[in-house]
Request: fold
Amino acid sequence: MAKKKSIISDRLGQMYSFGTESHELIRCLQECKQRLTRNGAKADNLPKGPEKRLHFLRTLPPKAKLVVSDWLRENLTFSEQNDPQNVLRDLLEAESNAEDIELCKPLWRTILGFYISSDCPEIITKFLNGEEIDLPQHGVSDSSTINFMDEDIEHCALISQCKEIPKPERTIPLFVGGLVDALRGTRTADNRWRTKLSEHSLPMARKLGELIDQFEASYGLKTIDGTSVIQAPPVVSKEIDSSMDEVLFIGKVLALTASGAFFVTPISLLINGNLRDLPEELVKDLFPHGGEAIGFESYFSKKFTRGEIAIWKARYQPSDKPAQYVITDYLSRVYPVVALPHASDEPDAVREWLLTRYQPQNDTAVIFHLSDGVSLRLPGDLSDPKKYDFDMPLESYRQVPQTLLGSHALRVITELPQVSKKYDCAEASTWIKRLLKRTDSAKDFPQFSKGQLQNLTHFIAEHESDNEASYLRAVSRLEQIADTRSFLNDTTQQLLALPEVEAQINIEKQEILTRYEEEQYQIKQSIKVLSEKKIQLENEIDDQKKKLKKETDRINKALRQQENELEQRIKKTFEAASQAGIETLAQTALLRAIIKNETVQEQPAQRQIAPESVAESVNSNFPLAEANALTRKHQLSSAIEKQVLATGLSESLLSSLIAATSVTPAVGLMGKQTKETIASLANLLAGNVWGEVSVHSDHFSFSDLMNSPTLIRLSGDTNTMTLGDFLTHQQEAGLASIVELRGFNRTPPETLLPELQECLFRTRHPAACSWTDRRQALRHLPIRHPILFLLTFTTGKSTFPLQAPLAYQLPLFLAENIWSDERPFEQNTDITPSRITLELWQTIYVDNRQPEYQACAPREVLEAALLSLLPDEQAQAVARLAYSLGRSTAQDIATTIDALAPEFGPYVQEMTTGESASVLETLFQL
Reply:
């Protein structure tokens, strides 16, 4: 918290504040935001408010400052530059005369022009850096000198006589007045002379104010019991610089949170190495907004306790949280001082006070100051004396300097010297035990006679001179015990010698003996009875164990038999269900048809062909994202490349799926990247809109499928409608329809696949589809825009394989990073959705109405479609893979692909021998 940094902040802040208009700074930061961020400034969230904006400008990195200078130089206008010395002299003169700040703004504007110029004058740089500058006098006082006049002497004389002076503005009288108040003991906060000096525009005057602080600190030195106590002068509000980046302070841990954060409230500042008392009313001025700093235990190697006081270093970090300063360093512990009203020569009283009178306020360690100036500390920084074993000595210090923080009524010690000696206040019994351990004749001291005590005294004087006082205190206690014991022994012997006492003792002894014999007899009888019961219980336990083992064996045998029978029954049931699966589904379909017919008879209604508009149950207002219309093949290729870069998918995979749509609207898709592939196709072809339908075993007809609930996914949202309504919506919107039929093999494929293949929008006959909706109304949908059904599959006993010839009409693709042309994808890349226009569809589609393709196999038609998107050999290889995998031998496929496109070798290996091979084996049981 150096003074020079404060001056820099003041001058730079004044230049930006008075040399520009507020709207100019706002516009500068907004237009330079990105450039500032690239040059190291934290400009993601621009500051709001004049103070935060000036602090942001003052703390910019050097490169970022150049960005601001360039903008100001290009966008602001400046008057013709005069001699910089004259400008500075005029400004200092105006400040010394306390003129209106509006009159200084043109001068600051000129200084700003010098500052942002490519060759800023050295005197301007020194001025803004707070360094001393030499200016020609020309009748104006230099900012680093003070003129002394005759009236100053008169004013000083009046001040020394405690008389008021008119308009106390001159520097020398202000300095003398501040010294006089300090000698009188006036607090700094109430010292009006010191306040005026701290607010003075001349640096020399402000330095004189600091001299008053130093004098007041030295003059406030007190002595308590031979210990120096320095009263820390309080901080005044004018000394608080809100632009300070780092602060050294003494603070108390106020609270700790479960997340590891802790809050520290300041009580003192370190200014130029001196402690200053920080009153509570000024805390929030320096530490906005909650009057505290925040720290995180994960940054430190020690644990903190509530109430702990230490010297901290904090850095200013603007935040939307109450705490604006973050603790960056823990320098040292600070100990609060607690007065203990006993001297060091009263160890028993000291120990008793610590155990009974002292109540710790928190978990922090303190220094106990005795009445004769000795300071004590519990070892290990223990906070509660009740938890300490006073058999061990305490740490002792003499004449440790203390600092008084008057506004907090607190004395503290910021630095402890080396331990001067140990202070022992253990009980007398502890010293007795130590003596018995230290002397070899301890075994001869069972009664501690007078002679033995004398021997102990000689032993102490010879071997324990360092602790002689404590040991002699223990011996004195032993002497008292020995005298008491001797008196009791003599009295007891005289009592026992009396005849009456002796006779009574004998009677009591006889009664005790009789009771003892009776108790012994009863105990023996009880033991005998218990022994007999023990034998009886052991026999019963053995019998119960045998019975339990026999019953357990019988139950286990019955359970095993039942388990085997149940296993056989389950096995037969599954076999029967597997064999009769298709028959069961047919029966279910027949039953459903009967139920529907009966429902129609009960509720006669005229069946109507629904119009081509979306049904009422559809939320036809779901938003469609803005999509780029693709009208040319090169636009489609560019869109595919952008999608590949953003997702990391194979370009060959996406091109093959688009080409396959011209052959059949039903395409099989499997692999770990199925979801990403479907989303990418929707983003390319249909404006990032697609549907998901779960196929189940109760889909017995095309109408069941069209009435199935469909989850619609679109940019940032979802919707729900039936599949028929979704297809109708897409046709009316002029968009292609992308639909995932999830778990397609959970119903017999021949139930749905022929109808799906007829949904190709360019066939020899006008393409359309029809179905009966849930209201038993006929629905009709002309297909004028492409529909692509992406079939995904699952495994398990309840699935159905594809039978010939449908199995040879379904192209199948693997969506995994195995196509050999994948590229690393760019994260956080936004891609605008696109859609393919009808004209482009007609261009890239193979016209299946042409005679040369009518008799061709689907593989050959797909190969022809791929030639416009892939090289010849790759087009042939992809077409063969799509229609051969799972339907030809692995050897034939590998030989053919290796000759055409060897780069697809990993693709062939995965589909024939990898995890995907088991799915193919379940899907195609040819």
